[in-house]
Amino acid sequence: MTAGFHRIAVLGLGLIGGSLVQAVRQAGIDVVGYDTDPATAAAASASGFPVAPTDAAAVHGADLVVLAMPLPEVARALQSLAPNLGSNTIVTDVGTLKRPVLEAVRTHAPHAVFVGGHPLAGVEDTGWGAADPLLFRDSPWALIVEPETSIEAWLKLAGLVCDLGAKPVPTTAADQDAAVARVIGLPHVLAGALAVTGLAGGPLGLSLAAGSYMSGSRVARTRPELVTTWCDDNPALVAALDDAIAHLTSARTALAAGSSVYPLAAEGHDARINWEHRRFEPVELSASTAELVAHGETGGWVTAVLRDDDGVRLLGMRPVG
Amino acid sequence: MTAGFHRIAVLGLGLIGGSLVQAVRQAGIDVVGYDTDPATAAAASASGFPVAPTDAAAVHGADLVVLAMPLPEVARALQSLAPNLGSNTIVTDVGTLKRPVLEAVRTHAPHAVFVGGHPLAGVEDTGWGAADPLLFRDSPWALIVEPETSIEAWLKLAGLVCDLGAKPVPTTAADQDAAVARVIGLPHVLAGALAVTGLAGGPLGLSLAAGSYMSGSRVARTRPELVTTWCDDNPALVAALDDAIAHLTSARTALAAGSSVYPLAAEGHDARINWEHRRFEPVELSASTAELVAHGETGGWVTAVLRDDDGVRLLGMRPVG
Q1: pLDDT tens digits for B256-295?
Q2: CB pair distance less than 8 Å for A319 and B203
Q3: pLDDT tens-place string over residues B29-51
Q4: Class of residue B108 by CB neighbours under 10 A (exposed 0-12, middle 13-18, buried 19+)
Q5: What is the ipTM score, two decimals?
Q6: Which of B142, B232, B275 sits opposite A199 (nearest CB)?
Q7: CATH number for region B177-274
Q8: According to CATH, where is 3.40.50.720 located in chain B?
Q9: Contact assignment for A271 to B199 by CB distance below 8 Å
Q10: Helix and strand tally (H, E) in chain B?
Q11: How far apart are CA B48 and CA A202, in angstroms?
């Protein structure tokens, strides 16, 4: 018996919000969308999804409100929504960085039952037109656990994420922002540097560019306004860039001295192959803040939130060894 | 009427050589392979392709010899082959860097009719088992024009490359090595740095890693021994790394000062989108060294080598604007 949500409001109908509206309806849950952009709202409505005329109307009666607008609009949305939130309404978001949102909630909606979230499911295309109800399948989805987080709300949201086919990863806002600096921010900055440096070689190079340039620069296709919201104000990205620059400088120095890029190529190869070959095993978890955070820290996630007369059983996967 | 090749010997049956053997046979040309590794030779033979017991036997009677062994083995192969080459036999290779091979030919086989080649068609998998007769379809294929290059041999090889569905790009060894520094060497070094730096974030980050880490580190899957043959001894890669490091350092400085990665993200986005949106127009070329080199320099390639009673007509594509 699942204690799920009955009505979900999704505010912001871009790639993530739009995909979420479609995925939630596929899961059989009542959903309503809203977008400040009339063209986006009209497109969603024309596709047969209910779209509310105001954010207050969307939120009315919802037991889950998803903030899916771009990060710069989150604070204003929270101010507008705070008075309209029911006392049992859970609020979540889908942004890449979790600390700025957590701070905005503490400032603008301190009484909200808030659980930050981050589905790691983007593609470089954006907007309602790119939305896909299967976008979240098998994707990690960071769900934030802070000292003030309601574990009951966290479990309810984790259950929904599992129902959408994704993998809830429990973590703190600070840990998740440090982690995404290295696996989201850094790849986007490197892709930008590769795209620019490749182009500087002139048209011959662009005609010779093939697979490695194509995949290395792929995420430079992302709108730069979005990249900034994933990168700026994340001190961990400075450290990640320092590390990457140190590796590149070391390879550059070796090359210039007539030596080899082999050490970096070999270390990078091992890192990538080890990542691909990680193995996992099932585990049963207890639903405590400390255990959830530790589970995420070791690379684990949640696979099911089961409820019976004895309470909640929480199942997950964790890396072997 | 095509003045094509009648018998092609491919020495080295890894990904490129193996794919070439299969593509050449698909094109209806007699082909024989050779590999110093008995297991590779046996695998090719078991797949139904003729494999010679020695390189001398493979080369006997061939009007085209393809050096498809790893770069470190090319010099020794040339020494061994030089006495066995017919005076009309054309020799080519498939390596990433063209200057080292050109120097090896000048040293070890100065009388060979040599035209350096580089199909830009690798994938990160290697070996005969990954060979694919369609590997070269629509791929650029650098064909080297130097002052000593026989234009007749160049045209004959360009015709074969067109027959395999690829796009011959005329260029000098120095120009091609400078270009591939930015579009092959650099993406591989960046992928290595990303793979290592991402891993350094610990298991949480590896569980959150998704599309951008996956595509950014994809070519770190390549065997590091191969990466070194594409990167080492290419001075242009030092300059390319300097450029990339300067862009990354600039983004890092902006971030640390509370500013934005926006300038790099925007410039990278424009570079990538402009690359995708390049348009081309057909052109008829004259078969002179100077015009061929200039055509490649502006981003052009050859689409057909046509022969009739009046001689050769050379068709190509070049960027518009």
Answers
A1: 999 999 999 999 999 999 999 999 999 999 999 999 999 9
A2: yes
A3: 999 999 999 999 999 999 999 99
A4: middle
A5: 0.91
A6: B275
A7: 1.10.3660.10
A8: 7-171
A9: yes
A10: 14, 11
A11: 43
